[in-house]
Amino acid sequence: MRSMDGTTSRSPGENADSREICLDHAAGSRLAPTVAAALHDALDTAWASPSGVHHPAAMVADRLEAARGQVASLIGAAPDEVVFTSNATETRNLMVRGTVRGLPGSDHATVITALEHPTIRALSAEMTTETCPVGPDALVDPDVLAARVDSSTAVVCVHHGQHEVGTVQDVPALARAVRSANPEARILVDAVETTGLCPIDVAAWDVDAVALGGRALDAPPWVGALWIRPGSRLRPLVVGGAQEFGKRPGAENVPAIIAMGVAAATDLEARATHRRRMAARLWDGLRDVPGAALTGQHMDDRIPGHVHVTLDGIEGESFTVALAGMGVLASPGSTCAEDAGKASPALEAIGLREPRTHSGVLFTCGWSTTADDIDAAVPIIRRTADTLRRMSPFR
Amino acid sequence: MTDVPRTVDALGTHCPVPLQLLGAAMRRRPDSDVFALLADDPLIAVDLPAWCHRHGHQLVDLHERDGEWQGTVRRAGGI
């Protein structure tokens, strides 16, 4: 197997060795070799506390700051505008709760889009929240968003790359629309799924905070980062130390942060191009499956590597379970659909109705996905779809 | 050097963290001359003047509004 960095290794349990083909990289993925090497090295060598005063501590502090600089460079920020966290969920919590708690008053009118991550939806339940609808293309119309923002709006949440349907929003256009309606509203962007996959320029975006994740850029999922606009009033969720500018006190996960820095310094376009090619190859193999529809936009305008399809007459969770039994690993895409048998909120938001809202399947390609993987997976997916459709009561 | 205040947001933190953050910001931003410290720990009203005196910095202003303090500090020599 040839990967982006030219290596041909494949770990036991992955793809060819076990006859399993992972097309679920958004949920979990083997670390890129350069990132894994950095992590292993840091576990061995970056053992001192970066807060210490001795030489080993200073060495670790330097490596921590180098990683901060690498992540800052990825998004066009200054290093001291980046706060490391333990994962994407913590980042989203710090972004929303930290911002809201830094605002005067107690009732903060919030606008979210209908495509937000469940974490943002749960956090918004703590405020008076209005939800901005989206069209069938799973895009937020700037004018529609602006119409929901007025002088009372304190916070607006936008999802850059939608984790389920895969569409990528035009954040600068949305930010301009929000600013025109209320220049004081705080604009918070969830870019966890697009970190290192889509260009992010915080200066050009004109927003107030951006949540970043490690997983999308081939770093560990147990590290995240939050960019905060200088001068923003953001309160920490926990107290007790000056680490991470006091915004996320407590011992830093130094090895994971160093690994995230290495991943952030890897060429974004190469990472994205590889995933786009693999995703396009996959969709080319599935587009004529009876009842199959690509959710959202054209293949070129979505999160690289991301293919979300609905299959008329086939229940998504059953499909993914059946696929796993055949050695192809995918995801139903929605935790609601997966855990509670409910319709996917994102699919409902773009106007799909039952049973289509239960028929979503998410395939995500990663750095280790090969053309051979796709070519082996496509006939399995097609066969499984055909089998389930013949059993379906919705035929 | 620039006189545009560099904001150090210490809201939600408790003594001695606000002063640690201010000191770290001064080390991190050697090109900035003036810093605006935001804090809501009431001890800052005592600690910031003492810290500035100890390190030779000029406390340009310190005021409280609705439970929040803003202190403006002009850097002197090294800290």
Major sheet characteristics of chain A:
7 strands, mixed
**Within the largest sheet of chain B, what's the order of strands?**
1-2-4-3
Structural class of chain B: alpha+beta
Work out the strand percent of chain A.
5-15%
Q: By CATH's scheme, which homologous superfamily of the largest domain in chain A applies?
A: Type I PLP-dependent aspartate aminotransferase-like (Major domain)
**Low-pLDDT regions of chain A:** 1-17
Multimeric status of the protein: heterodimer
State which percent range the strand residues of chain B make up.
Answer: 25-35%
Task: Assign a percent range to the helix content of chain A.
Answer: 25-40%
Question: What does the largest sheet of chain B look like?
Answer: 4 strands, mixed
SSE sequence of chain B, one letter per element:
EHEHEE
CATH topology of the largest domain in chain A: Aspartate Aminotransferase, domain 2
What spatial form of chain A do the alpha-carbon principal axes imply? globular
Main β-sheet, spatial strand arrangement of chain A: 2-8-7-6-5-3-4
SS field, number of helical segments of chain A = 13
Folded structure, characterized:
The complex is a heterodimer of chains A (395) and B (79). Chain A is of the alpha/beta class and 395 residues long. Chain A is built from 13 helices and 12 strands. In chain A, strands 2-8-7-6-5-3-4 form a 7-stranded mixed beta sheet, with helices on both faces. A 3-stranded antiparallel beta sheet of chain A has the order 9-10-12. Chain A has a two-stranded parallel ribbon with strand order 1-11. Chain A is globular. The model of chain A is unreliable at 1-17 (pLDDT under 50). Chain B is globular, with a radius of gyration of 11 Å. In chain B, β1, α1 and β2 form a beta-alpha-beta unit. The longest helix of chain B has 12 residues, at 17-28. Chain B is built from 2 helices and 4 strands, in the order βαβαββ. Chain B has helices spanning 17-28, 44-55; strands spanning 6-9, 34-39, 58-65, 68-74. Chain B has a single domain, classed as TusA-like domain (Translation Initiation Factor IF3), CATH 3.30.110. Chain A binds chain B through residues 80, 101-102, 104, 230-236, 239, 241-242, 245-247, 249, and chain B through 6-7, 9-14, 17-18, 20-21, 24-25, 28-29, 38, 66.
